[in-house]
Amino acid sequence: MKTIALLPAGSVSDEAAKQLFAGEDRVEWKHHRLIADVFQSTVNGISDYSVIPIENTIEGSVSLHMDWLVHEVDLPMQAEWVYPSIQNLISRRSELQNAAGELDFSRIKKVISHPVAMAQCLQFLREHMPNVETEHVSSTAEAVRIVRDHPGEGIAAIGTRIAAANNGLDLLATEITDHDNNYTRFMLVGSEPYTARKSDRIKTSILVTLPEDYPGALHQVLSAFAWRRINLSRIESRPTKKKLGNYYFYIEIEMSLDSVLLPAALEEIEAIGCSIRVLGCYPSFTYEQLL
Ligand SMILES: O=C(O)C(=O)C[C@]1(C(=O)O)C=C[C@@H](O)C=C1
């Protein structure tokens, strides 16, 4: 039996996790309202894995989660996969329509959702409800639950079709994200390798801290990969939180640690005085691979 900690039923995380573990019959889901508890459940050994959203097509890096992985926990990355984040405007249609039975957006007083989901729909909100109050909550599923529990207050949520159905609410507008092909990248973190499915794309994520900031320091780090023709898929500077302007470099590498070239490149980077923390070496799945 594998125990998986994740955000609530009806969240995008919930749908994405069930896609990764589709067909696995020995899985126990542990839903948590807060992402901190999703992490903690695996840290405490109550769960084997946590499902963590780390990047979105529209909004980019989910900084809070990335920083949590770097600063708060030591949970190795064991798999990454991509899942579509389709957002919808959800409430009770009967409360928000005019005498002609048409939806009247002006009757919506507040829109609530997860900050990343809200950020994916800013143009929609500006176009239809330019002055509406917005509020961030811990997940899209929590936002829909709040709408369910507060009838008659003119509140709408941004969330999934499943969350609307689970709570007996209506889809006032569907697929409202500002750009099509809106995907979220999820990371499975925990102490055991993920082996349920195989991918020929293996990645390694590392954090590099420079010994000091000198001209060309980062160039030296990147050249250790470049001349070995090791492909990097993402580089992001993250604050060390120790001093303004002090950064880690989060680097995703399209190569396994089991290769010959990558350990040699890491050795070269350490030889110039950098410190390296390996965050994980893991299979990477596209959405199509999991269908
Ligand atoms: O709130 C949810 O539904 C989540 O799964 C969280 C989350 C996120 O943290 O980025 C995941 C994907 C969505 O695009 C929006 C929010």
Automatic annotation (TrEMBL):
Q: Which GO terms describe its cellular component?
A: cytoplasm
Where does the record place the ACT domain?
Answer: 206-283
Q: Listed GO molecular functions?
A: prephenate dehydratase activity
Entry-linked InterPro entries: ACT-like_dom_sf (IPR045865), ACT_dom (IPR002912), Chor_mutase/pphenate_deHydtase (IPR008242), Preph_deHydtase (IPR001086), Preph_deHydtase_CS (IPR018528)
> What's the superkingdom here?
Bacteria
The Enzyme Commission number assigned here is 4.2.1.51
Q: Which pathway does it serve?
A: Amino-acid biosynthesis; L-phenylalanine biosynthesis; phenylpyruvate from prephenate: step 1/1
User: Residues in domain Prephenate dehydratase?
Assistant: 2-191
> Keywords, A to Z?
Amino-acid biosynthesis, Aromatic amino acid biosynthesis, Lyase, Phenylalanine biosynthesis
* UniProt xrefs under CDD domains: ACT_CM-PDT, PBP2_Sa-PDT_like
NCBIfam families in alphabetical order: PRK11898.1
Official protein name in the record: Prephenate dehydratase
Origin species, per record, is Paenibacillus paeoniae
